[in-house]
Amino acid sequence: MVSSTIVRAIITATALVAPCAAEAENLMTAQGAAPAAPADAGQSPWQMRLRALGVITNDSGGVDGLPGSDLSFSNTLIPEFDLSYFFSNNISLELILGTTYAKVHGGGSISALDEVGETWLLPPTLILQYHLTDLGSFRPYVGAGVNYTMFYNQSGKSARSLDVKNSFGVALQAGFDYMIDDHWGVNVDAKKIFLRPDFDANVGGADVHGKAKLDPWLIGAGLTYRF
């Protein structure tokens, strides 16, 4: 179930984003710009990173039909793994993997609920990146892509039950690698994911619905390895 959903999410994300790499280079060529240089012949197109990642959520959301209701979510620190494939020295596709959890708290007119419940999140994200390569060992990049977040192991606390719905989101990214040698480097990275899933809950026997506006910042640092 969770594993088959991950596969479907990765396939869908790849279908949505991967064609953009070829289109980006075709557009640059059509406009008279020099096409991106091919990846170095002596270097593998594959790269991986391992980061420590801070997940900082936006505290917003609410319950439908309850004016003044608000939601907040816990922040977490997690490990994150990503794998990149370089189509050229400038353009790559990065798959980001990690899992985290969020405690959901009521606020505003529902602050008396305190901790509503807890859910785990599995948010595979596929990002098309553009790298600057003429700055020596310093290699900044920007990216944009698609995220599909799956919610699992959900449980209520003041709510009898909590069911946050799986959701697509847009991801934006900026960061840099500082390469120590041809293979190893250090990485600093920031991503913003626009994630606003719907949810159902049962509170005191009443079924309620709403939207959780998590919109997290993902701030990370770690190691880069180019094969």
Automatic annotation (TrEMBL):
The answer to keyword Glycoprotein applying to this record is no
Alphabetized UniProt keyword annotations: Plasmid, Signal
Q: Which residues form the signal peptide?
A: 1-24
Superkingdom of the source species: Bacteria
| GO CC annotation terms, alphabetical | outer membrane
List the InterPro entries.
OMP/PagP_B-barrel, OMPW
GO biological process per UniProt: transmembrane transport
The record's Pfam families line, in alphabetical order, gives: OmpW
Family membership noted in the UniProt record: Belongs to the OmpW/AlkL family.
PANTHER family in UniProt: OUTER MEMBRANE PROTEIN W (PTHR36920:SF1), PTHR36920
What is the name of this protein? Outer membrane protein
Identify the species of origin: Rhizobium etli bv. mimosae str. IE4771
